[in-house]
Amino acid sequence: MFEQYDELPEGFLNAKAETLHRILEKPSLIHLQGKEPEPLFISTLLHGNETTGLYAVQKLLRRYQGRTLPRSISIFVGNIKAAEAGVRRLDQQVDYNRIWPGTHQHYLAEAHMVQQVTDIMRQMKVWASVDIHNNTGKNPHYACINKLQQSFMSLAGLFSETLVYFTTPKGVQSSAFAELCPSVTLECGLSGEEAGIDHVLNYLQSVLDCEDLTSYTNTDLNLFHTVARVKIPEGYSFGFDDDATINLLPEIENYNFCELDAGIVLARVEPGSSAFLQAFDDDEREVGREFFEYTGEKILLKKPVMPAMLTMDTQVIRQDCLCYLMERIPVPVL
Fold first, then answer.
1. Residue 204 shares a structural domain with residue 294
2. How many whole angstroms separate alpha carbon 130 and alpha carbon 52?
3. What domain range is 287 assigned to?
4. How many domains does the chain have?
């Protein structure tokens, strides 16, 4: 299911995401030796159209051609077939960031594959884990953590002052590795933007140069907790052009990371329709009635929240979700 390498495959440093399949035929785990033996784990292309991580890693490794890395690195390159097609995942594929240990889909061959990757990194005494992603909608750069511990917040705070604490969905890479080491998910804006690539490059360099994650403290953190994941029920058509059962507002992406008041309109529904939005909490309970109310043909927020990952990409909405809803929480004193 995956290949392992103890050196960079020839051509890796200059490959584009869509041509990477010519060099790596399947998901690959690449180990590179550095001065500090406990490795930094970096995962990229878990979603095939989220390319910032690949290009940042390539830039980082070009810096060290002919030089020794400050710390060993293990790079997991995930959904290469989806990257070739330029999509999050192929229709017949599972989501590569929902199959890691802790997943409800543990019976899948892909879940067995990433369980092996996790076991290998446990044996190698992984030092820290960084999973690199992009958003499809307008979002700031931010970092996500699964544990409210100093080392986790330090690892995340090196990337952004905006932190999101979440415990669902299950089966994500950062949550699995949170049981082994400090781990973080980076959300780096739109895929392939040069500013995002350079931000991740500088971040990875800072992490490589860091000896003790607990020694770094960012005192200006804004911490949010994900309280619900919003989905459009399978039976309803949706879009942005008044031709669907649920018609989302075209300006909806502008709501990302804005603390919205109750009463804000998110969508309009077809006259006479009983269409609704679903929301699932950390225990996967459907809690849409807590967050949405329905007045006439409008779907409105019932309480103040902050959305993230709102997008106008209808394929991503159907494959993943419409958005996440968050609430601000105090930064714990550790």
1. no
2. 13
3. 226-327
4. 2
Reference 323, options 249, 250, 228; nearest CA is: 228
Phi and psi at residue 288, in whole multiples of 5°?
-55, -35
Residues 185, 305, single domain; the answer is no
DSSP structural state of residue 17:
G
Residue 80 lies in a domain: yes
Q: Per-residue pLDDT tens for 219-252?
A: 789 999 999 999 999 999 999 977 899 999 989 9
* Same domain, residue pair 242 and 177: no
Q: Are 96 and 110 in contact (CB under 8 A)?
A: yes
| Same-domain pairing of 51 and 195 | yes
Strands 69-77 and 128-135, bridge-based pairing: unpaired
Which of 168, 198, 220 is the last residue in one of the domains?
Answer: 220
Give me the count of residues in the chain. Answer: 334
Domain boundary among 191, 220, 249: 220
Q: How many Å apart are CA 208 and CA 39, to the nearest integer?
A: 10
Spatial contact of 290 and 302, defined as CB atoms under 8 Å apart = yes
Tell me which DSSP letter residue 227 carries. E
Structure confidence by residue, pLDDT tens digits, 265-321:
999 999 988 999 999 999 899 999 999 999 989 999 999 999 999 998 999 999 999
Spans of the chain below 70 pLDDT: 216, 334
Q: What residues are paired with 197 via a beta bridge?
A: none
Give the count of alpha carbons within 13 A of 135, CB side only.
25
SS3 letters across 204-217: HHHHHHCCCHHHCC
